[in-house]
Structures are given as C-alpha cells and as structure tokens.
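User: Please predict the structure of the protein below. I'd like the answer in structure-token form so I can feed it into my own downstream comparison script.

Assistant: Understood. Taking the following sequence of 53 residues as input:
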Amino acid sequence: MMGLSGLELETRIELTENHETFRRLGFVKSGEGAHKGFERSTYIIMRKNIAAD
C-alpha cells in the first residue's frame, strides 16, 4: 500500500449521474465547494476510505 488513507474527488453538482456512479464505487459526499467567481456551491467533494491490508 502507498500509505494512503483514502481517495478524494470533486465533481460538478449538475453531474448527478457521476455522483451515483461514484457512490456505487464506495465514495460518500464529504463536502461542497464553489469555483472561483461563484457564491453558490458548484461542486461536491466525495471521499472513499481505503482499508489497510
């Protein structure tokens, strides 16, 4: 193992099919963020913990 505790990704809020695909792969929503110039959230952060061997 590479010493990683998990994987994290960002996906645009509008791409709901991607959210579902990542959920099926074991990712869970861990936050939201906004791209520069936007006041509202424009993406979600998803994380997947990696089990230690």
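That's the full token string. Strands lie at 6-12, 28-33, 43-49.
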